[in-house]
Amino acid sequence: MVMACRVVNKRRHMGLQQLSSFAETGRTFLGPLKSSKFIIDEECHESVLISSTVRLLESLDLTSAVGQLLNEAVQAQNNTYRTGISTLLFLVGAWSSAVEECLHLGVPISIIVSVMSEGLNFCSEEVVSLHVPVHNIFDCMDSTKTFSQLETFSVSLCPFLQVPSDTDLIEEEHALKDVASQTLTISNLSGRPLKSSELFKPQTKVEADKNTSRTLKNSLLADTCCRQSILIHSRHFNRTDNTEEVSKPDGFQEHVTATHKTYRCNDLVELAVGLSHGDHSSMKLVEEAVQLQYQNACVQQGNCTKPFMFDISRIFTCCLPGLPETSSCVCPGYITVVSVSNNPVIKELQNQPVRIVLIEGDLTENYRHLGFNKSANIKTVLDSMQLQEDSSEELWANHVLQVLIQFKVNLVLVQGNVSERLIEKCINSKRLVIGSVNGSVMQAFAEAAGAVQVAYITQVNEDCVGNGVCVTFWRSSPLDVVDRNNRIAILLKTEGINLVTAVLTNPVTAQMQTKEDRFWTCAYRLYYALKEEKVFLGGGAVEFLCLSCLQILAEQSLKKENHACSGWLHNTSSWLASSLAIYRPTVLKFLANGWQKYLSTLLYNTANYSSEFEASTYIQHHLQNATDSGFPSSYILNEYSKLNSRIFNSDISNKLEQIPRVYDVVTPKIEAWRRALDLVLLVLQTDSEIITGHGHTQLNSQELTDFLFL
User: Fold this and answer.
1) 3-state DSSP call for residue 337?
2) pLDDT tens digits, residue range 355-387?
3) H or E segment to which residue 544 belongs
4) What is the CA 24 to chain-centroid distance, rounded?
5) Do 515 and 544 sit in the same domain of this protein?
6) Tens digits of per-residue pLDDT, 124-147?
7) Among 138, 179, 207, 213, which is most exposed with the fewest C-beta within 10 angstroms?
8) Beta strands in 309-408 (DSSP E)
């Protein structure tokens, strides 16, 4: 990557400054309207186009201790959830700056850790009210409703915080009428309800406009948190369940209103569109993949009475750069690419069922399974070592071919590498050998074709061979889908196989990785929504509620210090209690500032505001109204009431059911929040380069600053 640097002040916390520097590089990736970046290698001058935090961090120099910790946190989030990474990175930077400010004001580290952890836990409890139950999705499937009917409504901005023009207001009211008709009001344990996040739009004059699709344009944002944990000094950020439950301040529990009607999502298409966050093309492929799995499960069971679970481990991608995007599709079976030299073999096999053998290791002459002990003290002396090696591999390849001929096997799937010499021999004998096959693919063919996986070709017998596999070209004209590496796409399937492949195409090779990443992000969003049977209503209400609640807590702590202390910590020393009472409002304020920066940056990224300051001012206006009321959730409900009273009297199209809502997954966002704060507090407590006291005066001007190269 082209070298970038930032000045690091040695008088301040080095580790936190480094976290802020790394986080600054990914600000443009926050929200649905991501600005792509070109990463240029200084040595070879090659470039790649990226639009994700994970790909960005792969190109940065993360060799420092802080960089490695950040990379581990990001990789843990990505490997598990495939979403929430941009949120994690941004909050790491925002909360690092918040902690730096606390240190600058002299707040003890123990107080920072305690109050920030408790503040985030408190937010976790409050946002539970935004849960939308997802039940019986496949019991209520509407075959007449398709993804394309809803995808015309672009969902990529944050609607409830954008400032609409007069001509946009008719679209705004259209959306709010939909929200008013079916509002989310799920109460948490304290009975506090909250509705949908499409709120806080300014009141302006209604003017006619035919375009209603932009109403929910770019509606995203529901980063949430609902699980308590404590900071553990571990490179893997482990959690424990024996954490002490945090009590809420007494004053806040008085803000309880009546429980309202509960909204549920029970439609797959609506859920998929709501989770697409504007990426309709990727989510449409995911939704079609789920439909194929569901149909296959019904066929296998003979009915659809048993509960269906979306199995993401049986979804695969096949990337074909150089082809138009319209070629992207989803197919049952396994689609992969093989060398064009296999073209005659495919033509020979495509009109007949073939027998299959599955090799779970490498298919090479010198492969030995893990744990194999080679015989010791054996030497082979030969005049020509090359002749020995060539003869050995040739004999081995001939033996493998004889085994395949003996059991009439025409297709071999290998989980590892395959000998090039063996591939040549198999092509000549009209047999297809495919290497580097995913383990789940091997298992699926074992189940459907009746094959048994073996480690060595010598273990093959009649009971290990599968039957009835169909081999064909992905397209009727194979030369039309030859990629730039001179490979063709083929399709392998058999009756009842539980495999679905998404073929991803793009004419620009540099965008292929981004397209695949976006597909998997959508797939995991839908997977966790179905698995957890709940989602958050998106649009920014979660972050705004956290911001409002923390603001009120800070004000209450300032006014009722002693009362608040008794409500937050138990069995603490008088010194700690008094210190906590003094510093809690300050720490809560800076923690809330992280949410303010988050929302401001997100709004600025939508290009609706000329600066982050303008976006922050707009948020602050509504935040002041919410905190002045003392009841953030009630303020939200009142805003809805004002808008709805005017909407119900307007003549708006009755096709409101077609406007999609915006959802977000629960656990991935919860973990993004938690990992971000855990990382910041870990670096805070373990960094030994904090300079305090009179040592400041001993540094000259050159020693005060340093450069952090990215």
Assistant:
1) strand
2) 999 999 899 988 876 655 555 554 545 444 444
3) helix 541-559
4) 20
5) no
6) 888 887 788 998 888 766 545 556
7) 207
8) 315-321, 329-332, 334-339, 354-359
